[in-house]
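Notes, p. 3: input format for complexes.
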Amino acid sequence: MKLIIAMIQPYKLQDVKKALYDAEVYKMTVINVLGAGQQKGYTETYRGVIDEINLLKKIRLEIAVNEDFVEDTIAAIKKGAWSGKIGDGKIFVLDLPRCIRIRTGEEGSEAIG
Ligand SMILES: Nc1ncnc2c1ncn2[C@@H]1O[C@H](COP(=O)(O)OP(=O)(O)OP(=O)(O)O)[C@@H](O)[C@H]1O
Ligand SMILES: [Mg+2]
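Output follows (113 residues plus adenosine-5'-triphosphate):
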């Protein structure tokens, strides 16, 4: 199992949701966050003197999947979130050792899917 964490532009959430739906990925957690990447939160057109990090509004998606859904999930996020401009986002893929469905006590691939 993997936990896929994606940081995306808020205006791309609808496109990413649609791409995930098309890939039959329906379970997700969506969180509003603040973040900065390698531009320190400023655009390339910014002309001022930068002496602090400027945090921008981002969406953090968390999706736990079985191994056979990992690549399709990544591809869907890439497809939905891509504009080709700075700040398009990033995808982190983490190993996920356990998952438990509280209602039934199921574990692992049955609980996740
Ligand atoms: N190394 C990192 N650690 C933690 N969060 C990160 C990291 N890189 C990016 N993020 C998060 O992802 C968001 C989007 O990052 P962003 O797309 O700007 O990455 P980037 O490396 O600056 O790439 P680009 O040059 O395409 O903008 C950031 O606002 C931040 O929330
Ligand atoms: Mg950036």
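Residues 2 and 70 are 7 Å apart (CA to CA).
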